[in-house]
């Protein structure tokens, strides 16, 4: 098969022919029909993830067709069109046994701990637990746009922050996950304030239903617009500035969801814990979404209340993926880029 292989951190990926993967007894091999390019891929490419062993194939936001399954797989069959969370569960640790596969103690991550989907084929573990069938009304490109960005935004708002109609939601950073959060919050009936320094991204957030767009004096502006602060705020970027702004812009008893990864020189934000205590704020970490929550998200997609495909800005081939990953470092993307390998 063809795959985009990383031989050293920060160097261009090499498009190569490598051996086809083989399904584990409990796993499956999937033909990649579409796979997103995510800033998490950039973090791995520059060396922020110590779990990556070189040589390595990145990629984790995929939709594909099952081409083989192991002897222990009974619920997934050849020909199924599937997607998968970026954190796959082992099925036996305590979090997995309670349904929280997204925080599995063994933390199996395609594109990070194992080879990923910037390839024509990808081997995935524990197929009966981790693979999610894609409904026929959702195209493969649109399905690839679900995760990790869309499904993480869904989990942040619906599973963790439990957003309610009429609440004020601030979204800090309007890349792929931020725009997904805008769309999801608007669909939930919330009033959304989009925050970014890129006016093009703010314009896109307004098109998706944000009632206000903020690029400076962030905390003061949000507090003024909302009459006291946001009920829910997401750091969808992952920086020391956006994290602190997200916490500080909340009203009393507000909920902050940390979605963007805080790595490298952005790893230690000075979160105002005195304010968290005095105002009884909730600080919520979001590490993807458990498999058990996919049904609710996919039903919302099928009903048309959210439209992840509208976030796809362009599609590219495998030969373009290296340059696309590198460009993530400068936040060049508007919306979601999806790779179609063949």
From TrEMBL:
Alphabetical keyword list: Metal-binding, Oxidoreductase, Zinc
Stretches assigned to the Enoyl reductase (ER) domain: 10-340
InterPro entries: ADH-like_C (IPR013149), ADH-like_N (IPR013154), ADH_Zn_CS (IPR002328), ER (IPR020843), GroES-like_sf (IPR011032), NAD(P)-bd_dom_sf (IPR036291), Zn_alcohol_dh (IPR050129)
Pfam families, per the entry: ADH_N, ADH_zinc_N
PROSITE patterns, sorted: ADH_ZINC
Keyword Oxidoreductase: yes
Cofactor: Zn(2+)
Molecular-function annotations in GO: oxidoreductase activity; zinc ion binding
PANTHER family: ALCOHOL DEHYDROGENASE-RELATED, L-THREONINE 3-DEHYDROGENASE
Family the entry assigns: Belongs to the zinc-containing alcohol dehydrogenase family.
Annotated protein name in UniProt: Alcohol dehydrogenase
């Amino acid at each position: 098969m063809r795959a985009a292989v990383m031989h050293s951190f920060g160097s261009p990926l090499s498009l190569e022919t490598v051996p086809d993967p083989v399904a584990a007894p409990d796993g499956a091999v999937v033909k990649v029909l579409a796979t997103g390019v995510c800033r998490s891929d950039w973090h791995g490419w520059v060396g922020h993830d110590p779990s990556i062993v070189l040589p390595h194939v990145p990629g984790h936001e995929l939709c594909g067709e099952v081409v083989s399954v192991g002897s222990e797989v009974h619920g997934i069959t050849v020909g199924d069109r599937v997607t998968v969370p970026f954190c796959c569960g082992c099925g036996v640790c305590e979090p997995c046994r309670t349904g929280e596969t997204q925080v599995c103690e063994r933390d199996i991550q395609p594109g990070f701990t194992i080879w990923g989907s910037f390839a024509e084929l990808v081997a995935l573990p524990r197929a009966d637990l981790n693979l999610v069938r894609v409904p026929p009304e959702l195209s493969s490109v649109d399905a690839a746009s679900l995760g990790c960005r869309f499904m993480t935004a869904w989990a942040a708002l619906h599973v963790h922050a439990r957003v309610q109609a009429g609440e004020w939601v601030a979204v800090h950073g309007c890349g792929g996950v931020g725009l997904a959060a805008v769309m999801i919050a608007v669909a939930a009936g919330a009033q959304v304030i989009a925050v970014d320094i890129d006016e093009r991204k703010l314009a896109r957030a307004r098109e998706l239903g944000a009632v206000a767009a903020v690029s400076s004096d962030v905390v003061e502006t949000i507090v003024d617009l909302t009459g006291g602060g946001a009920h829910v705020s997401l750091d969808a970027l992952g920086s020391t500035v956006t994290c602190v702004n997200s916490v500080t812009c909340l009203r009393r008893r507000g909920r902050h969801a940390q979605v963007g990864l805080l790595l490298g020189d952005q790893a230690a934000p000075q979160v105002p814990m005195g304010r968290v205590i005095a105002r009884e704020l909730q600080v919520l970490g979001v590490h993807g979404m458990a498999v058990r929550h996919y049904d609710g998200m996919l039903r919302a997609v099928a009903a048309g209340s959210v439209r992840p495909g509208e976030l796809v800005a362009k599609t590219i081939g495998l030969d373009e993926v290296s340059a696309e990953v590198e460009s993530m470092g400068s936040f060049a993307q508007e919306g979601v880029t999806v790779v179609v390998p063949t």
